[in-house]
Write a structure and sequence with these properties.
single chain, alpha+beta, 25% helix
Length: 187
C-alpha cells in the first residue's frame, strides 16, 4: 500500500489488477500499462494467466516490471524478462524496515544502489558485528532506517550477502553500490 500511495502522491495513475480474469485481460491489453509493480510469484501467475487466455506476451506493451522482493537474488528475474520481453527491476522490500525500497537494482545492471537518504548501510562480517571496510569483500548488509519516525529500526541484519563496489557506476548514480558475489563475478 505504501508504494500505491507514493505513486498516487506523485500523480501517477495506479490501476489495481485484482483477480477478475476478464478485467486483467482488458487492463493488460487495452490500457498500455507502462510499468507493472508486483513480486515474482504474482508476475509468474500473470504470465500463466495470459498464456491460458491465449494472449501472446510478444504483443503486449509492457516496457518494465518492478518486483518488490525480500531478497536481492531471484532466479525468476531472467524468466520474467525473457517471457515478457521487458526490463525487470528488483526493489529490496523488507517489511521489517517499514519502507519499500531500501535498495534497487541498477538500470545498467551493475548491482544494487542503496537509498542512502533513507537508510544508513553497513556491511558486516557474518556472525559478528565487525564492519567490513574493504571493497569486494563479502559480508551481510545491515541497514538503519533514517526516516522512520514512529518505529525506527537500528542495525537491521538483512541476511543478504553483498559486497561494496567502489568504482563509479555507469548509470551515473553516486549512491552506495553493492553487488551479490555471483553478480560481481559475472561483470
Amino acid at each position: 500500500m505504501d508504494v500505491q500511495y507514493a505513486l498516487e502522491n506523485i500523480g501517477a495513475t495506479v490501476l489495481l489488477l485484482g483477480t477478475d480474469k476478464e478485467n486483467i485481460k482488458e487492463l493488460i491489453t487495452d490500457f498500455r500499462i507502462d510499468v507493472l509493480i508486483s513480486d515474482f510469484l504474482q508476475a509468474t501467475k500473470l504470465l500463466v494467466l495470459l498464456q491460458a487466455m491465449g494472449i501472446s506476451t510478444e504483443k503486449l506493451y509492457l516496457p518494465e516490471v518492478i518486483c518488490m522482493e525480500e531478497g536481492v537474488l531471484n532466479p525468476n528475474k531472467n524468466y520474467i524478462e525473457q517471457r515478457l520481453k521487458t526490463r525487470n527491476t528488483i526493489i529490496y522490500n523488507s517489511p521489517s524496515m517499514g519502507c519499500a525500497g531500501s535498495l534497487f537494482s541498477c538500470q545498467e545492471g551493475n548491482g544494487f544502489h542503496v537509498q542512502e537518504d533513507y537508510f544508513y548501510p553497513e556491511i558486516v562480517a557474518f556472525g559478528s558485528d565487525e564492519i567490513i571496510t574493504d571493497s569486494h569483500t563479502v559480508g551481510e548488509l545491515v541497514l538503519t532506517a533514517l526516516a522512520a519516525e514512529a518505529m525506527p529500526v537500528f542495525r537491521y541484519r538483512t541476511g543478504q550477502a553483498v559486497m561494496h563496489i567502489d568504482k563509479p557506476c555507469d548509470c551515473g548514480r553516486t549512491l552506495l553500490r553493492v553487488a551479490t558475489p555471483t553478480e560481481y563475478e559475472a561483470n
